[in-house]
Amino acid sequence: MVFERDRVTALTAPARGLGVQEGMRRGGVQLLAPEAHLHERDTLREDTTLQQAALALLQYTPQVTLAAEACILLEVGASLRLFGGIRALCRKIRVTIARLGLSAILSCAVTATGAWLLARYGYVRTLGPTSLQRRLDRLPVVLLSAARPHLEWLHGLGCRQLGQVRRLPRAGLQRRCGKDLLLMLDRAYGAAPEVHDWIVAPPSFQARVELPDRIEQTDVLAAYAQGLLAQLAGWLAARQLAIKKLRLWLEHERGRQAVPPTELQVALSVPAWQEDHLHTLVKEKLARSLLPAPAIALGLAADELESRQAASEMLFPEPGGSAEDHQRLLELLVARLGADKVQQAAPRADHRPEIANRWCSVMQSAASLPAPLGSDPARLPPRPLWLLQEPLPLRVQQHKPFYRSALEFTSPPERIEAGWWEGRPLTRDYFTARDAGHAYYWIFRQWRGGEWSDEEPQWFLHGLFG
To answer: Homologous superfamily of 206-310+323-335 in CATH?
Structure first.
């Protein structure tokens, strides 16, 4: 139960079953339910939670505002087609609210005040003005905040529903109750315009959540991180940004046994803004991390951001997924295995095979990679798929290189001369060779002192064909 000024303001169904009611004092509650958990109302924390929920809901519409009595209003008329209709949109909003650790009563109507009244009454969804008027007429007058100071007078007239109040003479109702009551009724029924102060996303994002206990299970921490990521997704949508790197930190014990926070960096090869994808990466990152102590708080910040590029849909989608799907797969592998375990080829402008390519992380941007050789690959002789890390010396028998058996040449020589600009000149003749078992190899003859030197050339095995 929640108390405000020593009186009950909120309670659960089991507490109500024991006889506890709203407005009851603390002493009476302790007599009826001595084992109940009692909490003091924290209005500052409630306001902060509403602001966080409103920020997360910005991913569905840019027009979000806070209303009285813990209500959030969303103008979703322009978002229905994008999210597949009102039913699908409501389902998505419910999921987002649940990820924040909250519960909500959703209602929708053609007017904001009407939706606010229907939500306070219960889950009601109406999409037309006629059905809205019919439903509003049956609502109790007590839901109308402007009518509460005059409830006794209205009940004395037999007006207990909004429809009955609307049938009263407007002039007399205005003299008795003021303009606010009529204005609220007109806004609810769509007879008067509504003006809202839409919330604006802050220029930077940083969120933090206090954990209910000392937690060291990474899957539980990932569940709390999802609430932060929901806020991040709303902020990114409102600012039309995509994230390139996010920072997650876990706060540990304070005081004499203080442990410094644990920071985790999640880098993306391609900027993203999808909440589910970001949560998958964070979950994998947490699963691979060793915590020095249980966490008592969790924080999230957006470090590197870029402008969001609008997705271009194709008339006939390519099989196997889009380029964005491939990038998400690579980012998932990096989060699960580590950036040093998922690598990409980085060709270099050099004819020496052992230098012509190096391996680097897939997280390295294409702009930082060296330029490849400008020759046409179709005009080059065949290259083996498997290149040895170090060339393997071969012995010579009867003037032929030998590897398991005598090797027969199946291609003309390919001359490679390079390294002279580094002071290490290199002269090689590459051949494709075949052994007695019809396995193909890539071998070369290296001239130590040049082709016209008196020294005998040496043979090496450099690669294997499939």
So the answer is: DNA polymerase, Y-family, little finger domain (3.30.1490.100)
